[in-house]
Specification:
The chain is built from 10 helices and 19 strands. With 391 residues, it is an alpha+beta fold. It has 2 domains: 4-45 and 159-223 and 322-388, FAD/NAD(P)-binding domain (3-Layer(bba) Sandwich); 95-155 and 226-317, D-Amino Acid Oxidase, Chain A, domain 2 (2-Layer Sandwich). Strands 1, 2, 9, 10, 11, 12, 18 and 19 form an 8-stranded mixed beta sheet that branches. An 8-stranded mixed beta sheet has the order 6-7-5-14-15-16-13-17. The longest helix has 15 residues, at 284-298. It has helices spanning 16-27, 66-71, 74-82, 113-117, 156-166, 210-217, 274-278, 284-298, 349-362, 385-388, and strands at residues 4-12, 32-36, 51-52, 95-97, 100-104, 125-128, 145-149, 152-154, 171-173, 178-181, 187-192, 195-204, 224-236, 244-247, 253-261, 267-272, 308-319, 331-335, 338-342. The structure holds flavin-adenine dinucleotide. The site of flavin-adenine dinucleotide has 39 residues, from α1, β2, β13 and β17. This is FAD-dependent oxidoreductase. InterPro entries: FAD-dep_OxRdtase (IPR006076), FAD/NAD-bd_sf (IPR036188). Keywords: Oxidoreductase.
Length: 391
């Protein structure tokens, strides 16, 4: 039977941004309904590398930028939540690595001496040697330098699972939610499965899906941009754990490697960075060959003989900026009775929720409604990319 459901905040999109905000708002006493059109975490979040950046990557030019400063507090925010001392209780979520690393394969580090010596980075970047080196570099053939960053790497599908637990009965699945618009351009309600959801405020956290939602609603600003990537996945039974940016000759990492557990007990190296940015122009086979050559050059002692290889095309969705530059912070823009947002990084989900809470408070939106949401169809959790990408 069709009915009208009332809630304080209706969130569209169940990636890291929507799920984190949903849990945070519930913790503050707001009633919420989060509508997901596919599977929770099935967008960029579940395909991300899980690095909780502190901004070091953006400081490779030799000076800290606005991006690195705004993001610098995020590792501690996440760490506190993972330990049960933060704004959300994420105890039990799998931490894949206590640290992410920077690794220079050769003499290049000398060009970056200023960067490593900079006062702003003191305490955030430590050179590591000998027994402190990650296992993969503890090989007599390794000649480069390794730096440990104050950044962590989480198992994103596991974080999504935990955030969905914190959501209680606020999650609802609908493959095509419809926006109902009032004459003044604000949102009147969202229609799902024949029900109407009415909220004090609506939040768009649908990632790439925000574009179609904004179109459906009839709003042209803010506009969205896509940054296409083609990631490479390597799966094998004996891959050593590796969480590192490999430095190249440009300020962007030549390759960023993270390691993820597969359901069949094997491990998957997930390769991003410039390899994935430049790889969008290559066929999957050509990109795999390039990745194989790169790894042979960088880590020739690692045995990749029995590994499976594949690629994953995926877009980053961000607010439009001239020249496709990387946005600096989580983005949140109020439009009528709606907040339109893109975190721009997984790591910035707490920052996005700060901005949303502060907007709601400044607009005088307080917790006030409490409907019964039981019995609504619940979205599934997305399967990890490394479990479904291999043929
Ligand atoms: P998404 O995760 O894309 O979630 C949006 C959700 O909305 C999806 O579940 C989708 O199904 C749903 N949806 C879409 N349309 C609708 C609709 N009409 N109605 C309802 N629901 C809808 N960031 C980091 O900080 N660290 C990293 O290591 C990192 N690595 C990355 C690697 C890759 C390959 C990529 C692509 C991104 C990476 N990022 C990383 C960026 C990060 O993943 C994203 O910024 C972040 O996950 C975006 O989260 P989101 O919740 O906004 O979007």
């Amino acid at each position: 039977m069709s009915k009208t459901l009332e809630t304080d905040i209706c969130i569209l999109g169940g990636g890291i941004a929507g799920l984190w905000l949903n849990a945070r708002l519930r913790g503050l006493g707001y009633s919420t309904l989060l509508i997901e059109r596919g599977a929770l975490g099935g967008g960029q979040s579940g395909k991300s590398q899980g690095i909780i950046h502190g901004g070091t990557k953006y400081a490779l030019h030799g000076k800290l930028t606005a991006a690195s400063e705004s993001i610098a507090g995020m590792p501690n925010r996440w760490r506190a939540s993972l330990q049960g001392d933060g704004e959300l209780d994420l105890r039990g979520v799998r931490l894949l690595s206590e640290h992410h690393y920077l690794w220079s394969p050769g003499s290049l580090i000398s060009n970056l001496a200023g960067f490593f010596a900079s006062k702003a980075l003191r305490g955030k970047v430590d050179a590591v040697k000998g027994k402190d080196l990650p296992e993969v570099f503890a090989n007599p053939s390794f000649r480069g330098k390794v730096y440990r960053l104050a950044e962590l790497v989480i198992d994103v599908p596991d974080a999504v699972r935990r955030l969905s637990e914190l959501a209680g009965d606020s999650l609802v699945s609908d493959s095509a939610p419809q926006i109902e618009r009032r004459d003044d351009g604000s949102i009147n309600a969202v229609r799902i499965n024949g029900h109407q959801i009415k909220a004090q405020r609506y939040v768009l956290t649908a990632g790439e899906g925000n574009e179609a939602l904004l179109q459906d609603w009839g709003v042209s600003q803010p506009a969205m941009q896509r940054r296409p990537l083609q990631m490479v996945l390597v799966k094998g039974p004996n891959l050593p754990p590796l969480y590192a940016h490999c430095l190249g000759s440009s300020p962007k990492p030549r390759m960023t490697i993270t390691t993820h557990p597969c359901a069949d007990g094997q491990w998957c190296w997930y390769l991003g960075g410039e390899l994935a940015e430049q790889g969008v122009h290559l066929t999957p086979d050509a990109l795999v060959s390039k990745a194989q050559q790169e790894l042979k050059e960088l880590l020739p002692w690692v045995d990749l003989a029995n590994c499976q290889w594949t690629t994953l095309p995926v877009n980053r969705a961000e607010p439009a900026q001239s020249g496709l530059v990387r946005p600096d912070t989580a983005y949140l823009q109020p439009v009528q009775n709606v907040l339109v947002s893109w975190p721009t990084k997984l790591a910035l989900a707490p920052d996005l929720s700060d901005q949303a809470v502060s907007q709601l408070q400044s607009q005088g939106i307080r917790p006030s409604l409490n409907d019964d949401y039981s019995g609504l169809p619940r979205p599934q959790l997305a399967a990890p990319a490394w479990d479904i990408c291999f043929p």
